[in-house]
Every structure is written in structure tokens, then in C-alpha cells.
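Please predict the structure of the following assembly.
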Amino acid sequence: MPFRIDRRREMSRGLLYLSPVLAVAMTVLTGFALFAALGQDPLPALYHFGISPLTTLYGVSELLVKAAPLITIAVGLAVGFRANVWNIGAEGQLTFGAIAAGVVALNFWGEEGGWILPLMCLAGVLGGMAYAAVPAFLKTRFGVNEILTSLMLTYVAALLLSALVFGPLKDPAGFNFPQSRMFTDSALLPIILAGTRLHFGAVAALMIAVAVWVLMTFTIVGFQLRVLGQAPAAARYAGFHGKRLIWICLLMSGGLAGLAGTFEIAGPIGQLIPAITPGYGFTAIIVAFLGRLHPLGIVLAGLVMALSYIGGENAQVEVGLPQAATGVFQGLLLFFLLASDFLVRYRVRLARRVTE
Amino acid sequence: MSAETAVLVMLTVISAATPLLFAALGELVVEKSGVLNLGVEGMMLAGAVAGFAVTVSTGSAVLGIVCAALAGALMALIFGVLTLTLAANQVATGLALTIFGVGLSALLGAGFVGVPVAPLPKLAVPGLSDLAVIGPLLFAHDALVYLSILATAGIGWFLARTRAGMILRAVGESDESAHSIGYNVIRVRYLAVLFGGAMSGLAGAFLSLSHTPMWAEEMTAGRGWIALALVVFSSWRPGRVLLGAYLFGGVTILQLHAQGAGGLGIPAQVLSMLPYLATIAVLTIIAAGPWRGRLDAPACLGKLFRPPT
Amino acid sequence: MVSIGIERPGPRLQARGLTKRFPGVVAADKVDLSVAPGEIHALLGENGAGKSTLVRMIYGVLPPDGGQIHWEGRPARIESPRAARRLGIGMVFQHFSLFEAMTVLENVALGIDNPGAMADLARRVSEVSASYGLPLDPRRGVHTLSVGERQRIEIVRSLLQNPKLLIMDEPTSVLTPQEVERLFKTLRQLAREGCSILYISHKLDEIKALCDRATILRGGRVVAECDPSEETKGSLARLMIGADLKTAKRRAETERGPVRLTVEGLDLPAESLHGTALRKVSFNVRAGEIFGIAGVAGNGQKELELALSGERRAKDAGAVRIQGQEAGHLGARARRRLGLGCVPEGRRGHGAVPDMSLVENMILSGYERMNLLSTGFIKKDAARRFAENVVVDFDVRAPGTAISAGSLSGGNLQKLIVGREILQTPGVLIVSQPTWGVDAGAAAAIHRALADLAAKGAAVVIISQDLDELLETTDRLAVIDRGVLSDPMVTAQASIEDIGLMMGGVHGPAPVHDEALGSRRYAV
């Protein structure tokens, strides 16, 4: 073997934070090759994908609009991933939370009042939590794997939303289109930058990230969650309540996903439609890993992944790059990230030939 | 219901079950070697698009099927390099593989949406296929259906009766022991992972070349995940994978027919939830039943292993 | 034993300058070793001396960083266990290389390179096991077997290949004294037939009784080669440790205080198929007393540890009483509040979290009794001070408290965990396998700390497979076998023979043995 690979006794801190940068760089390089293979001139394609969206104020505001739900969801998921609780159904919890909030908005349609929006948020959070409670209950009560249950429920939630907007929640004056009425003003988030779609959700995402960072770093609950993920037997030895921690993880990530869904329908969308998310719940998984499962890292990672969305749209308009390229980039980024993590835990050196 | 209708319904059940069977059998072999690859959905999509594109472009379904298996194996190779060579987390890598597969297949298949393809030819067994009822049920399928049944028996035989199968089980049972006796754990797992990828690729090819047959983005619609659940349902036994796949095929067809019959007043979407809800129900019953703790999950499933240097 | 009559040709195995480096440590440093045909050769050294590393290189499991191996006079490159077996080297691992969910026969077939037809192999297994006194049923699942029976699989598996060299890594640590005698008979028979045996151990009595020659390792280097029969136990120990063996004085009889721990009729079902159920376990420990639990591994020690620490709860609240309070129904945290401390058998991942810092590992079990929280927030400074106290008081060799627990050596990590529990001044301390894999210096320090704790009025329970350790450290002890605990006996009056018989260990056939066991246990 030309290389000698040894496990490091301590993780390399420097590489831990460098590896996401390395992964982004590798993704860009691969993107270069990919564009070329698709018959695009790589440089303009990359420019329209990665840079031109950021040259206008509107572009930046759109970046934040996309980053907000990603960060909100990813922060919650990361708590679970740290504790070895694999909620991958955030997409469904987002949808279910949005349905709950949307029902509130439509129920009070046309009414005025500052209480409607908070009530929607509450409904959205509770909806997301309730939806995540199903895998939580099945896991803690029967030991059912939460990966499969939370994912199956994602399909169910999408079908439920579809059934509602095709049925009971359909706009009576909507020419039979599958969508609800447009929400009235009291049910819409305030815009924080005039002339853009940038809404309060972006601020909320930042606040949530800070709050979760405090929780994970300074409190005993955060400590217990980290122990549960790293050494479940040690958590049991310490007497930590494993099932309660699993509930916390799933309820928190579900609630935050529900809140993100609420912000989507009360913000950029303004009504219930069959497709309220371009896969935020799944992309947030990548965001969580790219941000090293650290809330503040996730804020940065959310911005990067949001760029992949608007960059994808932009490149589609400008150079006709297929929309699906976004998913490819997202997948590649996670591959490279996982690959570069090897360097964090292992030391690779050229092997010396040993002869006696 | 007349006999002919019953036969037709049964044929659709077989058609719905076959992709699940391929994917779940492949994953079963992967998991028996101690590896959990959650990227089945992504590998199926790669197979579906590769099989479809090659068949349409070359006119050769055989070539299409071979390429579908290769595409699945290629996706699995990415998974193998990351998890086996670079010791990455298997859960995270599997998710990445699915996300990647969804994007890549949509990208490559963009030009093939709405393109027609001739479904795989039925290989009727002369003489037998003309028999009433059992003729069409047993002796007039396309090659992949026969192959899926053969694969069930073949994998069962391989795991239980061959030395290579025993080594595969041993690696999944205790990677440390297998290594200290002198087996190359990583190589065995690579082979298993590649095989699983090829089977997922075949599952995808069956979807796009026989079941529908057409190409559409994300046409697997969660079947890869249901296949993962089927492996748990089967307690890692090939025969039970067959049973599970046909049960789920039955549920899928049942709800389709319910929709066709006017849905008894139930919205179509609610009926479409049935396969997913059934998966959750089955997983719960398996986990909660009196046989819990005797599920025969490979002891090293999902565990990271790197040989000492 | 000296073999006679045959003039010996050159050595069968000769290693020259074998070297293996791991990050931060040289596990084998230019080791020379020579084993003659038909010789039982001891490889002696304490934990961490590099014995296992050396034989793993000889068996092709670990690639050496330097040096050469000669086999029957010719240079050999042993790149895999398969290559080793081709040469005629067999190995019985300390941590068995077996597959629990598979049958004996499958396990044997996996470990040899030319198994042939299974039916044929089953016959050969029966033949070999009969001719060497190692009874085995090829069709049984490994998970149903006792530790001793599992070891037989490994031995039979090696013997089927007609080895010229058999490596045994710490084979007796899992056996009862009677089983050890039986094993020695087998090994002597093999040596008479010309097979060389490389016997790894740190038990001096065994080596004097069994081995023709010994190579002694310390800190990865060969420090001596000798004929053990010409050495005394003391001189061997000096070579092995580099200092005099401290023959621990029996502790002076101290005043016994009130009963601090009562276990009464403790039942606990097996957690998994491979687990052991505890049945009606009863004993009590007074203040100032050290109570030992002896037994062969896998007879319920793990379960007892978890049942005492609170990681598994009993149905009956009164089954465990800590300082007079009913605690059977309580979890680990609540029991700690009553004054319980626990040092579990597993260190990495059970008693400590390897990837967390020493400070964070203090919080793990100490956050309540050491008052490290304020309204849910961790008092980092208080935790650091606690960690520093443990590091100083228990001589944990660590460059600061911010490093990860996983980077400590086994001995230092164990001192850290023991220190963390003792500085919380527990009224009752449960310690499982306190010195397993720990170097002699750390082991002595841990034994002293446990004695001091008892002297201050705590009740201490030591669960250990190392009978010598229990005989040295405890006041009273009992033997656990298949989840049943014997009546306690006063350590000073107990005979090793009796304890060995109570340890039983053979779960399968051998009815004679079972009868003896039964009459001894239940006649009391």
C-alpha cells in the first residue's frame, strides 16, 4: 500500500472546519466538468449559477428567502442527528405544519387582527410536532426505525395537501385550480425589505439558530443529547432519559419544520398550493451536515445551499441549464463533504518503505 | 369477478411487486454483509433512466437492462468508496445517494420525458402459456419477472448453501472476527454493495421498461424506501422478501382499483396513501410483535469498520 | 517440561527485529523471538507490553512496520492469516473470532481453508474434539455455548489444520481452574506430538507450570529470555514489571458499620437471546467492607452490574436497597442521589465518552452530586476544577483536561473514571473489572483507592473475572454462575478449589460436573 492511514487520536479541529470549504471547492470543480459534459461553456454557466444571483439586492434578498426555511429546518434536524435520531421526514412535517397554519388562515379569512399570524405559527409548530410525534411514538414505544416511518409520512403529507387543495380547501372562486384562496393581510408575514419578498422568517431563522446553539453548548439537555449520540451506553449509565431525549429531538425538529412551512405559505407563497416546497426538508439534511451539525455553521451552510436553488433557477433562465442540475450539485456537495471528513479522523501519509 | 378479470388483476400485482422484489433482494444481500445502504431509491432511479435511455436510443432492451444494472452498480460504487474506503457514515451517505440519484436521473432523463417505448416482450412458454388461468399467470411474463423469481431462489441458495454466502454472512455478523480469521471484509462488502446496486438498477429498469413503461422524474415514488422496509419485514430471509413484495404489490393494485371504481367516495389521494401507511403498519407490527428480538438482523448492520494498519 | 530423545533442528519460528508503531506508541520495538519444534514457549508481559501486537503480526493480522520472520529456517512473508495457516500456524484469540449467530460447524468451516463437504467436516470435528478431550456438538449455535466451549471451537478449528505452531492468546482468563487443568493436558499432548505452542499470559503460576521457555516483554521490548522452571515467581515478576511484585497485604480487619447495600431476591430477565437472566440474587455489604463477585465471563456479571447501577430496573422496589432506601425501581440518576457510584466494565463508550473532553466526562455522572448545574446551564468552571482534582488526586497522566478521554491509555482512563466516582464520596460503590487491561502500576493505585474508600466507611462491590484480584482485595466474596449467586464466603477462608468448582462454567453436557456443582451449591 503506497499510503499509510492511521486513525488520529484527536479529531483535527482545523480540518473539521476546513472540510466544508474543501467540499464546496471540489463541487465547483466537478460542476466545471459537468457543465462541459452538458455542452455548456463552463465559465458563464458557473457565473450564472454561483455569482450573478448575488450581484443585485433582489438576488441577495431571494437568497435569504430561500435560506430561511433551510436554516430553520436544518438547525432542528442537526439536534437530532447529534443524538443519533434520524428524522428525515422534515419535508412531511413542513407540509403538515403548513396545512395546519393554512387551515387557521383560511378559517379566519378576511378577518383583521394581530393575533392571526401568531396563531398560525402556533398551529404550524404544533402541526409539525404532531406529525413528528408519530415516528417518535413508534420508535420509543415499539422500537420502529424512525428513518423509514418519517420518510413514509412525507409521501402521506404531500398526498394529504393535494387532497385538501383539490377538495375542501379549494378556492371557490379559483376556476377549479387546485389551490386555496389567497391569504388576507393579517395572515401574511411582514416584509422587512420593501420591494423584495424578504420576510420576517429570515430573522426568525437566525434567532432560532442562536437559541439552539445556546441549548446545545451550555445546557445539560444539550449535553445529554450529545452523549446519547456519541455513546448511548454512557447516556444510559449517566441515567439520562433516552426516550425523552428522542421525543425532544423529533418534536423540536418537527416543530421547526412546521414553522418553516408556516413561513413559506404566509410569506413568499401566500396560499396553500399542491407544491409548497422545492424539497427544503431534504436539502436541509445536507445543510445540517455541511454546517457540521453546528447551528452557526448551519447558517452559513444554509446560505450556500440557498445559492444552489436560485443559482439553478438563474442558470436555467440565462443559459438553459436544466433545473435538475441543482439536485446533482446538492448530492455532489454532500458526497465531497463526507469524503473530506475522512481527513478529519484519519491521517494519511506516504508510507515509508521499511527495510531492515 | 370473472376469472379473466382476476387473472388481469393478478398480473398487475406481479408487475407492481417485481421492482420491489429486485430492490429488496439486493438490499438484503447488502445488509447481510453488514452494510446499510439507504440509497436504494437513488440507485433505482439511475437504473430506470439508464435502462430507458439506452433502450430508446439503441432499440435494444437487453442492452438497456444491462446498462440499468451497471448504472445502479456505479451509484453503489460511490456509496462503497465513501462508506467502505473513506469510513463515512452509512446513513448520511445513503441519503446523499438518494438526493444525488433524484437530481442526476432528472438531468439525464430530461430529453426522454414523454418519449414512448415498446414494453418488454412477454416470453411465453410454448404450450404452457395457453393453459387457462395458470397459463398467463405463470408462463407469459417478460424476462425480468422470471429473473426476479430466479434471483429469489438463487440468493436463498447462495446465502444458505455456498461457502461464499457463508463468508458474506460471517462478515455481516462480526467484521472483527472475519478480519482476524483472514477474510477481506472490505472486499466482501464492496461486492455485496455492487450487487445491491445492480439489483436496484434492474428494479428501476423494470419500472421504466415494463411496469409503466415510460420515464418520468422521481417515478420510483418511494418504492426504494418501501424495499428497505421489506428487508426488515422479511427478517433478512429471501423467501419472505418475495412474500412481502407481493403483499405490497397487492396493496398498491388494490388502491388503484378502488380509485378506478370511483373510490367509494374517498379522494384518490387518500387511497394513494395506502402503500405508505401499510409500510408503517407493517414495520410497527414487526417491531412490536412477540417475535421481536429474534429478527436476525446482522449484528454489524450499519457499523463502521476499517481494518487496522 | 523438557522434551527428550529428539535432537532439535533449527527453530520452527524465528522473528528478528519485528517492529510495529501506532500513533504515539511503539507497540513492538525490534522484538526477537525464537520457538523450537515441540516447545511450549511463553510470551510473558503485563497488559500493554506488546504481546498481542507481536502475535497478531506473526499470524498476519497486522502488517509489521519492520523486521523479518523466518519459518523453519526460511524467510517468510505472512501477509494474511490465510498465509499463516498455509505455513502451519494456528491461533486462538483472546477475544474469540467467532460468529454468534452461526453454528459450531459453520464457525469451524469459516476458520479453515479447505473445509470440504460439511457432513465430512462435522465428522472430523467430532473426531478431533474426542481425541483431544474437547467435546463439541457441531450443530449447536455458538450463542448457546459457554465461554469455555467457545474456546474449544477455536482450538478444534486450529487443530483441524494440523498446525506446527499454535498461538494461544491469554487462553485461561475465561476458564475455571478445573478447565485450565484440562486445557494444559491438551497442550502438553500437542507438544509431545511435535506442535510448537506460543503461549501468551501474564499469569506467572501458569507459565511456571506449563512452559519450557519464556520470552519476556516490557514496553514493547524483549527484556529477557529464560527457562521459567528455573525462575521464581518473584524473579519473573521483576523481569515483567521492572519492579518487585507487590504482594498485597490482606487488609486489616476493620470495624464493620451498618449494612449499606442490600440485594434481596433480585430477578432480572435476559435482555436479549444471548443474555443471562439473574435469578434470586441476594447479598448485602456493610460499611467498610469490600465484597467480591467471582465467576466465568458471561454468567450474569454484566447484568448484575446494570441491575445494581440502575441502568436496568427491577420490578420489585425492595430488591435493591441503598443505605436503607428502596431503590430497585429507580434509575441510575435516582440511585446516584441515594449515594451510589459505579465504575462500569466498559470504559470507552460506557463509563466515559471517548470523543468528549475530560471535563465533559466529569459532568457525565457528577453533575448532580458535584453541583455542576445552575438552572439547567452547565457551570464549566466548576466542572473543570472537578476534573483537575481527579487528575491530580488519582495521578491521571494527561496533558490538561481539554483533551479527549479517548486519547488516554486504558490505565489512565480507568483512573479517571474511578477517581470521578470516588471523589463524589459514594456510600456504595460498584466496580466491574477494575483492572482489566490496566498496567500494574495503575492497577495497584486503583486497588489502594478502593481500600481507602472502604476504610472511610463506604461499601464496595467488585465484580471481577480475575480470581487473584478478588482474593487479594475483598473481605467476602460470592460466585455467580448462570445468573445464580452462591452464598457468600469469607475470602480468607475460601479455597481456590471450591471457588473453581462453583464457577462451573460448562453449560453443555458433562452431567458429572453438573452434579458436583449442584451438590456443592445447594447443599449449603
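Chain A has two domains: 1-32+325-356, 39-321. Chain A has a mean pLDDT of 91.
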